[in-house]
Amino acid sequence: MFKGLFKKAPVVVRLTAPVSGAIVPLGQLPDPAFQFLGKGVAIQPTEGRITAPAAGTISAIFPTKHAVGLTTPEGLDILIHIGINTVELNGEGFTCLVQAGDRVSVGQVLVEFSLELVQDRATSAVTPVIITNPELCKALTLCTEPEAKSGSTVLLEAEI
């Protein structure tokens, strides 16, 4: 009789673009491995600054500063990977403004990087933004717009 009476309302988490640029499906990246890490999209950046796509806690900073992990209060794990094969730059051209354990707000600058250096020396500057634990999501909607604006374009909506 009371089945379903106390169901929790679904929570929707919106991830904003961490960088401005053209939106690229994960399946079109030069490295196909990214599409197997989870659900998301990538952005061909037009600027060298990465902002937090959601509020949360920094869960990981790669030693080479080219990738950041963020966990939202709802438990979504987000990977922002700046460029393809940028690990080979060994941190050159990257300045990380946060550290693991920091709580961040949406739009807060996480990493600044030399876009020119990444474009010249990496395979690609394209930056995947991936939910690595999509199994938490009841529904996931990806942005279909051709361009993203940092801090304002909603890249993903995840219903938890």
Strand-helix topology:
Elements: E1 12-16, E2 21-25, E3 39-45, E4 49-51, E5 56-61, E6 67-71, E7 77-81, E8 94-96, E9 103-104, E10 109-113, H1 115-121, E11 127-131, E12 139-142, E13 147-148, E14 154-159
Antiparallel strand pairs: 1-14, 2-3, 2-13, 3-11, 4-10, 5-6, 5-9, 6-7, 7-11, 8-10, 12-14
CATH topology: Glucose Permease (Domain IIA)
Low-confidence stretches: none
What profile does the largest beta sheet have?
8 strands, antiparallel
List the domain count as a whole number: 1
CATH class: Mainly Beta
Number of helices: 1
Distance between the termini: 26 Å
Mean pLDDT: 96
Tell me the name of the CATH homologous superfamily: Glucose Permease (Domain IIA)
CATH architecture: Distorted Sandwich
Query: Strand arrangement, largest sheet?
Result: 9-5-6-7-11-3-2-13
Summarize the model shown.
The chain has 160 residues and is mainly β.
Description:
- InterPro entries: Dup_hybrid_motif, PTS_EIIA_1_perm, PTS_EIIA_component.
- It comes from Propionispora hippei DSM 15287.
- GO terms for molecular function: kinase activity.
- The protein is mainly beta and 160 residues long.
- It has one domain (17-159): Distorted Sandwich (Glucose Permease (Domain IIA)), CATH 2.70.70.
- It has 1 helix and 14 strands; from the N terminus they run E-E-E-E-E-E-E-E-E-E-H-E-E-E-E.
- Strands 9-5-6-7-11-3-2-13 form an 8-stranded antiparallel sheet, with no helix packed on it.
- Strand 5 and strand 6 form a beta hairpin.
